[in-house]
Amino acid sequence: MFNRPWTFQTSVADMRQLPASRGTEIAFAGRSNVGKSSLINALTGRKGLARTSNTPGRTQMLNFFGAEGASVTVVDMPGYGYAQAPKDMVDAWTKLVFSYLRGRPNLRRVFLLIDSRHGIKDNDLETMQLLDKAAVVYQVVLTKADKIKPGQLATLITATAEILRKRPAAHPVLIPTSSEKGLGIDLLRAEICALP
Ligand code: GDP
Predict the structure, then answer these.
(1) What is the DSSP-derived secondary structure letter of residue 33?
(2) Whose CA is nearest to atom 24 of ligand 1?
(3) Which domain holds residue 110?
(4) Where in the numbering of this chain does the EngB-type G domain appear (predicted)?
């Protein structure tokens, strides 16, 4: 499925604009600058598919990507955790994301991206709370693993797994990745291909 040409399908800022739900859907979430666009580009093998470095116009949108003949749709969720985000922007994000999570029966898994240098932050925990409440399974993907030492990565994996153990909808298996070095991308693809 990942050897096909992936293309951008649509951007959605309102639940009424959602495309018809068909096949398996997966979504990617994370703080802004976590490396989400880079990971989607690495996953789909298309450099410019998801734009790297968020442009303000796209921050509050769900972006849909697909490939002819592939049974999976990839959704890029708006990044969160901007330092200067006004409260109404945060509220709009929560409303859009929560209604999407609750109202999308074919959404099989959310990949929650965590920067290996920072670990889980308060706003990641808030996102996990939304995911737990919506009962959508989420799996943590550690990004930019090339930026820390192997020993630090091992410590981070243990600490993160410990946090996830107490969360009802969290998947227990973590995926360390580096879009830059191509690390963990095959494992991520295998997880996606194994989804029902
Ligand atoms: P987004 O805001 O979550 O979509 O993040 P981007 O994909 O735009 O990445 C943010 C910054 O992190 C960019 O400068 C990327 O080049 C850098 N970056 C992303 N992934 C990696 C990675 O795996 N390794 C390293 N070293 N840098 C990365």
Answers:
(1) T
(2) 144
(3) 6-193
(4) 22-196
Question: Does any domain span residue 93?
Answer: yes
Q: Provide the token pair at 40.
A: 């989607």
- By three-state DSSP, how is residue 140 classified? strand
Ligand 1 mutation target, pool 52, 55, 147, most atoms within 8 A of CB? 52
Instruction: Please state, in angstroms and rounded to a whole number, the distance separating the CA atoms of residues 190 and 149.
Output: 25
Q: Cα of 160 to ligand 1 centre, how many Å?
A: 20
ipTM comes to: 0.99
Does the residue 37 lie in any domain? Answer: yes
Digit-coded pLDDT (tens) for 153-184: 999 999 999 999 999 999 999 999 999 999 99
pTM of the predicted model as reported, rounded to 2 decimal places: 0.96
Ligand 1, atom nearest to 177 Cα: 23
